[in-house]
């Protein structure tokens, strides 16, 4: 058995009505149950699986756990899906996913970069998802992280299509992936049900993976493309139209209005007629059932989003009634409901577990291999409220790599670097440091870039990142949650930790205070480089990741600033390589207290 699946699958697998009830399943109400000339289509949906096959945390080298007791992975998803299929008997079933499958875990990374599928390996997510028996999956934005060749190879390894109606050729404006599928169900007695599934992905791909897609693909808005292809599906005779959308339900964009909306599932439901249900993805939220009124027809459109990583499976019930009138009989939607099933109630599927067992163990061995040692324990737990050495380490390695590559006049400029606390759980233990320790510090597949900026632009950048803090008065003490993750117009549920960047210098310190008693936009004080106040026209080389440079988070200036370094080096691998080459991580070589939180110039106290 894999490390993540030590319990007997048979002992706890969901079987029958009682097992499904434990997973959160509610039987279809009698009023909506198929009867007479009615049929129930069941749509089973997942999203944002992010490379999780097993309920395993590779960074902790332990079974996955969180405070709410969730469990994860495609192996558990298959158990739930098989149970629903068995319970529904001969009813028509459709199984779909809403994207972000091949990035997010060391398991996914290993078969993209260490033993890449482009060299002959089979992606573990392809093995697992083929065994689940998906009918289709929408493209997620993270499908593009490893380049088009990796994505196309993954596509070839699947037994089902990847759909992307709004991933188009720049010249022809036609989709470069299938925009939809049409499923035909033979219901007996001469009756057939025709179901269209339209796949939509995220316009933000053009920003977030610019280096991989620029000149090769464009990503128009979800509403615009749905307005083309939903009518096409209806013209083809589809009785029902389902959309699988890698786009959140609550309309917003992390990149402002530069592109069509990032989270546009509700807009599609409101503005595009003849959509019956939307499987939502991307936002990593759980929406069991939500109805949105189409403004043209007045029809209620069902939206559902299961929780990410395989924690939940959405079950959509669409009951249709056959109406006879003048001409050919047609199916009319009578009711639409949705519920979510919880993966923590079931054991993983044996077949999926066995298929990915060997790859799982290879990756466990890889991430637990020792690459060096740390002179002291370094923790990221307080990186959101104070300058800590483990984040200084990221900035140091990034800046050092950029500095070594600069030539000409650029080589004479001071190099500074940005880094964010991606995981508060990240840590280097005193003593041996493994690949997973380093990978746990830098959990995203970003590449390193550098741009030329002025002192005024550095200050603007820091003012923007200081939006992360809630406004306070006094010097505390304050609990961390009382000062961090402030809501903004682009992050109404709170600014995520990964959008709090700090800046460090390489050869000299870049120092500044963040006055969070002040209003947003006037919080950065005493900005200095090597002890001297930074001049507006002073030039720096700023090391950034490709996500930030391409517009991720909407930070100012870096998208338009001259690029002076872009060697497509992955930052996580750069960190691993640095530890391997230098063997010892000693904060005495790179750590300094460059920034602090203040209130009216006085340091504040933040408790854990």
UniProtKB/TrEMBL annotation:
Keywords: Hydrolase, Metal-binding, Multifunctional enzyme, Nucleotide-binding, Signal. It is found in: Cell envelope. One of its GO terms (cellular component) is outer membrane-bounded periplasmic space. One of its GO terms (molecular function) is 2',3'-cyclic-nucleotide 2'-phosphodiesterase activity. The keyword Nucleotide-binding applies. Residues 1-32 form the signal peptide. It comes from the Bacteria. It catalyses: a ribonucleoside 3'-phosphate + H2O = a ribonucleoside + phosphate; a nucleoside 2',3'-cyclic phosphate + H2O = a nucleoside 3'-phosphate + H(+). This is 2',3'-cyclic-nucleotide 2'-phosphodiesterase/3'-nucleotidase. It comes from Nocardioides albertanoniae.
């Amino acid at each position: 058995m894999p490390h993540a699946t030590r319990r007997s699958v048979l002992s706890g697998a969901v079987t029958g009505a009682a097992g499904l009830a434990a997973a959160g399943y509610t039987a279809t109400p009698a009023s909506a149950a198929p009867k007479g000339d009615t049929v129930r289509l069941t749509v089973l949906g997942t999203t944002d699986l992010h490379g999780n096959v097993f309920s395993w945390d590779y960074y902790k080298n332990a079974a996955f756990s969180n405070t709410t007791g969730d469990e994860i992975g495609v192996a558990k998803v298959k158990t739930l899906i098989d149970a629903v299929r068995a319970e529904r008997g001969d009813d028509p079933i459709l199984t779909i996913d809403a994207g972000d499958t091949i990035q997010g875990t060391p398991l996914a990374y290993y078969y993209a970069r260490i033993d890449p599928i482009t060299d002959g390996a089979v992606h573990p997510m392809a093995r697992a998802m083929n065994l689940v028996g998906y009918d289709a999956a929408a493209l997620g934005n993270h499908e593009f992280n490893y380049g088009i060749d990796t994505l196309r190879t993954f596509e070839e390894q699947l037994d089902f299509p990847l759909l992307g109606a709004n991933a188009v050729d720049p010249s022809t404006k036609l989709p470069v992936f299938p925009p939809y599928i049409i499923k035909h169900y033979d219901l007996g007695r001469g009756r057939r049900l025709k179901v269209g599934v339209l796949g939509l992905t995220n316009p933000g791909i053009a920003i977030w993976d610019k280096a991989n897609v620029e000149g090769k693909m464009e990503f128009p808005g979800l509403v615009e493309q749905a307005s083309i292809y939903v009518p096409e599906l209806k013209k083809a005779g589809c009785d029902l139209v389902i959309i699988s959308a890698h786009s959140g339900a609550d309309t917003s964009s992390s990149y402002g209005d530069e592109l069509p909306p990032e989270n546009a599932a509700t807009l599609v439901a409101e503005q595009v007629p003849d959509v019956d249900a939307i499987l939502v993805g991307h936002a990593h939220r759980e929406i069991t059932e939500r109805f949105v009124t189409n403004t043209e027809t007045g029809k209620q459109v069902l939206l559902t989003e299961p929780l990410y990583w395989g924690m939940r499976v959405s079950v959509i019930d669409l009951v249709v009634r056959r109406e006879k009138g003048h001409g050919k009989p047609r199916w009319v939607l009578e009711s639409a409901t949705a519920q979510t099933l919880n993966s923590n109630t079931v054991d993983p599927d044996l077949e999926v577990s066995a298929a990915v067992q060997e790859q799982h163990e290879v990756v466990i061995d890889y991430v637990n291999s020792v690459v060096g040692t740390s002179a002291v324990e370094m923790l990221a737990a307080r990186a959101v409220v104070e300058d800590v050495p483990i984040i200084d380490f990221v900035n140091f390695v990034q800046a050092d790599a950029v500095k070594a590559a600069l030539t000409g006049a650029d080589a004479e400029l001071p190099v500074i670097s940005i880094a964010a606390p991606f995981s508060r759980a990240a840590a280097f233990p005193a003593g041996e440091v493994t690949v997973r320790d380093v990978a746990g510090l830098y959990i995203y597949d970003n590449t390193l870039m550098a741009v030329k900026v002025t002192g005024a632009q550095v200050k603007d950048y820091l003012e923007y990142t200081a939006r992360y803090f809630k406004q306070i008065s006094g010097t505390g003490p304050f609990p961390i949650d009382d000062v961090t993750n402030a809501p903004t117009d682009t992050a109404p549920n709170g600014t995520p930790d990964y959008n709090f960047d700090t800046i460090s210098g390489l050869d000299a310190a870049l120092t500044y205070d963040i006055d969070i008693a002040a209003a947003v936009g006037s919080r950065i004080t005493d900005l200095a480089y090597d002890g001297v106040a930074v001049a507006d026209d002073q030039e720096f080389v700023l090391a950034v990741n490709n996500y930030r440079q391409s517009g991720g988070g909407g930070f100012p200036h870096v998208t338009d600033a001259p690029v002076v370094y872009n060697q497509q080096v992955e930052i996580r691998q750069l960190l691993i390589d640095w530890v391997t080459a230098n063997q010892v991580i000693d904060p005495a070589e790179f750590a300094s207290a460059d920034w602090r939180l203040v209130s009216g110039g006085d340091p504040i106290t933040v408790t854990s």
